[in-house]
Amino acid sequence: MIVAFVVSGLVSYGSPLRNHFDQQYVICVISVLSIQETFGSTLYSSIQTIIAILPLSILLFIIQIVGLSYHHYLATEILLLLLSLIIAYQCTQIQTRKIALLYNAIFFSTIVNQNSLPKVFVFLLLSMFIIGMSIAVLVSLFIFPLFATFDLEHRFSYCLSNLHRMYYLIVQGFLSRDRMTSKVSLSRASILEQMIRETMLLMQPRILEAKYEPRTLLKRLFYRKRKNFIDLNLQDQASLISSLMFHICSLQLMVNQCQFDEYHNDLRNELELSVYYLNSCQSSLISAFLSRKSVTNQDLRDRSANLSKAAESVRVAYKKLRLEKGIQQSEGHLPHGFFLFQLFYIVKLLNDVVTNSNQNSNRTVQPKTFSWRNYIQFDRARFLLALKSMIIIGVGSIFVMVPYLAKIFENGQWILIAMCMTQAETVGGAFTTMKMRLIGTLLGSMWSYITYLLVADNIFWIFLVLIPWIFLFGYLRSYPKWGYTAIVAAFTPILVTLGQLPYGDRLPAGNYALLRIEENFVAILISIVLTMSIFPVFAIDLLKESIQKSLHSCEESIDSMHKIFDELFHHKHSEKDLSKDQIKSFLQQQRSSFHQLINFQRILVSNASVEPTFCWFQNRFSNTRYNLIVQQQIDIFRMLHNIDATVIYLSEYSINVTNQSNSCSLFLRNIHSEIFEISQQIMNCLQTWSCYFKSSQTRCHYFTRGILVHRNELIQNDLFKHEQCLVDLHKIIHRLEHENIHQLFQQYQQFDLILLAFSSIYYSLAQLAQATLNLGTTIHEIFELEMTDLYEIY
Description:
By secondary structure, the chain is an all-alpha fold. It has helices at residues 2-13, 25-34, 39-66, 73-90, 94-113, 121-142, 148-174, 179-200, 203-210, 215-222, 234-256, 262-289, 297-325, 333-362, 373-376, 380-401, 403-408, 413-421, 427-455, 459-476, 483-498, 509-533, 539-569, 580-608, 623-660, 662-695, 699-705, 716-737, 742-747, 752-787. Helix 19 runs antiparallel to helix 20 (459-476).
């Protein structure tokens, strides 16, 4: 950011361009604003901005040529509102929308108040934006470049190595002699889990940014020695990390609930050496994946073979113990069978990387087809949001268009600009943005005043004083809590000290800093009132809508689980048969969309916590409980993923066994019918809870979505339905915990991998029911807090 600021300053004030621009400080501001964390992100945001403002510039040029000029207040106001409506509707990305609205506001506020503007004023403004963004892109490319491609590689390496550390700690906890020793290892694993999750959050955005980088060229230049590095594309790397995270967290869940009884001690004594050897072989294969040196394909295959042999030794040791102990201690077989199955499935995932790397390198991704329907189709909610933006900008433009107010507020342009830049998708998001902007403006204006007192109007010394300030907030910008606050604090001194928008130079810089605080404060107060009163979109409504979608996604996952079972075991076929690779790809897409919903919910929980929810609920917003709901949805989906993975694994392994044992097919049908019966009850519960979130949304949400309100008040029958669902789930859990599995162990004594898979399915079903019960309990608590007067705050 400092280099971009200095280079843009040299271009603006130390080159012949200073003779062509009156507002060259805009170049400095845009160059600082355009700098992002990676080169791909900087290029992507710059391209999106140019795509938005280039056609807008042509349209504004035509408007100016037609005759719009100085003091044409009515025509200017009408055109400003019309174009603001079009921009807000067409720009779906919030940051691009803000920049385009800002660009539009600058043009109209300048042309109506400044006489004798050149006919090409809009193109001069466009050239300043493009020069600023070009400087940012070049600086991002040549000065300490961080490419999204490499950042993804580093995140993949970090996550993979720490996932293995987490895996080792969980295995260590499983092999501990007592519960307290196990808890120590599990607490360390939980710390690693949190670090890995924070690292994974940016993997999907980085994949989008990497599309704007020359990935093949970068890998050839910087990975010359790593010719045999696993050839996974970026999406496959993210998918592998996500799958490993699912299964390792499943291991963690089992060890947390593990009973350190006599059976467990016998199992630990029998498996300890072989499990540690398995971990050693797995560590060797992962280190080969992450090695900076060249690793031959043969070496990878040898390490993969050693890992398979180590897994086989664990299986043999477990089979030996099971045959010795028989079925007298069958209660401990389900959780331990689940644990061992997860170990073997992780081995399978890593071995598949070695086996399928060449296939992945030759795979091509089908490009998305362009459709005009996405642009022509009318969206009621988006139109109302655009109309709201137009009204807010219209109110802000009064301070520019009305001469009396313009005189009081020095043309009022900062009020209009602040109202453009503090808009958001939700009321809570807008409030958060306003708070950050106000704090950033206060900090930046204070430093502007100090700069003015120290160096007055000396441009050279102004740059020297601003550099440490930009460095400080450029550093703080990387922290999520500072984000937008740091950006505003960084560019505010540039605006105040290097120049102002037209007709803002009547006051000295010191007074202008105080005026900027005053205008931002006025703009934020007006925006708060308008945001709450005009078509408000509350984050709590979008949060409940997102929870409905994620619950529906879980229902679809349950439904697809039965279809996959039928498809793989040929009980019945769909119209179009699917291969195993297509099924895995389908599950991967399902998992990706679910993660997007969960990430969106985390943001909405934060935004909803600042909204005045006490106005329509009995109690204030429960931040803790909604965060708990987010985590419990992940627990449910993780168990569904485990069942899907087990069914696919079972279909791959049991072909030969089925040919040897006719009873296997019969048992598969029985277990499928049992899964179907239990999952249908779980689906009924999810549908009931989804109805609560739908009926408890505000009337504003129904209006913006164009939905007729049938009933949104609580009736006593709703609580009864919820309580009955909880009772039914408790019966399912009790039934699964006391399931008679003696027949299962007697029938498949010789087929231990099938036995482990069946154990994993039963245990996953029990944990799925338990996770659903936990989710239902939390939803029931929210139900009572929001819709009843059972709990009153003192």
